[in-house]
C-alpha cells in the first residue's frame, strides 16, 4: 500500500526519465492529477490522460529535448512529507534556481505554483520543487 502518493508519483517520473521511457503510469488521485496538470502547464511534460487500461491510473507522457533525448525535468524534489510538513507564507516561498524552477504548494485555494501563490498572496504547504 502506498502511503505517500506524491512521493510515489515523483519517484516514478524520475525513474522513467532515467531509463528514457516515453510514458509513465501513476495513481489517479486528485492531488496527483492537479500536480501533473501543473507540470504540463509549465512545460515539463507532454500530456496527462486517464489510462485506457484502468481508471485508477494516470498516463503521463514525458517530454524530451533535442535528438539526444535530454529529460525535460532535471530534478524533482519532495519538500514536505507525511512525517514532516513544511509551510510557508507567500512572502517566504523559496525561489528555485532564481525563478527558473517551480515550487508546487497546497494552499487554501487549491494546488498552485509559487508564482500563482505570490500573485494571490496565499501561503501553504510546500509539496515539491521541480527544475
Short description:
The protein has helices at 5-18, 30-42, 114-120, and strands spanning 23-27, 45-50, 57-62, 64-65, 70-71, 76-78, 87-88, 102-107, 110-113, 124-130. The chain has 131 residues and is an alpha+beta fold. One of the primary rRNA binding proteins, it binds directly to 16S rRNA central domain where it helps coordinate assembly of the platform of the 30S subunit.
CATH topology of the largest domain: Ribosomal Protein S8, Chain: A, domain 1
Q: Taking all residues together, what is the mean pLDDT?
A: 93
Biggest sheet record: 5 strands, antiparallel
How many individual domains? Answer: 2
Count of individual beta strands: 10
Distance linking N and C termini = 29 Å
Helix tally equals 3
Overall shape: it is globular
**If you compute it from the alpha carbons, what radius of gyration comes out, rounded to the nearest whole angstrom?**
15 Å
Class of the largest domain in CATH? Answer: Alpha Beta
Which descriptors would you attach to this protein?
about 130 residues, alpha+beta, Ribosomal Protein S8, Chain: A, domain 1, Dna Ligase, domain 1, five-stranded antiparallel beta sheet, three-stranded antiparallel beta sheet, 3 helices, 10 strands, about 25% helix, about 35% strand, globular, rRNA binding, structural constituent of ribosome, Ribosomal_uS8_CS
What does this structure look like?
This protein has 131 residues and is an alpha+beta fold. It folds into two domains: 5-71, Ribosomal Protein S8, Chain: A, domain 1, CATH 3.30.1370; 76-130, Dna Ligase, domain 1 (2-Layer Sandwich), CATH 3.30.1490. 26% of the residues lie in helices and 33% in strands. The protein contains three helices and ten strands. It has helices at residues 5-18, 30-42, 114-120, and strands at 23-27, 45-50, 57-62, 64-65, 70-71, 76-78, 87-88, 102-107, 110-113, 124-130. Strands 6, 7, 8, 9 and 10 form a five-stranded antiparallel sheet that branches. Strands 1-3-2 form a three-stranded antiparallel sheet, covered by helices on one side. β2 (45-50) and β3 (57-62) form a beta hairpin. The two termini are 29 Å apart.
Amino acid at each position: 500500500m502506498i502511503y505517500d502518493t506524491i512521493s510515489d508519483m515523483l519517484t516514478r517520473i524520475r525513474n522513467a526519465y532515467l531509463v528514457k521511457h516515453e510514458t509513465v503510469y501513476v495513481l489517479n488521485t486528485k492531488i496527483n492529477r492537479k500536480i501533473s496538470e501543473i507540470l504540463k502547464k509549465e512545460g515539463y511534460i507532454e500530456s496527462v490522460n486517464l489510462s485506457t487500461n484502468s481508471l485508477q491510473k494516470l498516463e503521463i507522457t514525458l517530454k524530451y529535448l533535442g535528438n539526444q533525448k535530454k529529460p525535460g525535468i532535471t530534478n524533482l524534489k519532495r519538500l514536505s512529507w507525511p512525517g514532516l510538513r513544511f509551510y510557508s507564507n507567500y512572502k517566504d516561498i523559496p525561489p528555485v534556481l532564481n525563478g527558473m524552477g517551480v515550487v508546487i504548494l497546497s494552499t487554501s485555494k487549491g494546488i498552485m505554483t509559487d508564482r500563482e501563490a505570490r500573485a494571490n498572496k496565499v501561503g501553504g504547504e510546500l509539496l515539491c520543487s521541480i527544475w
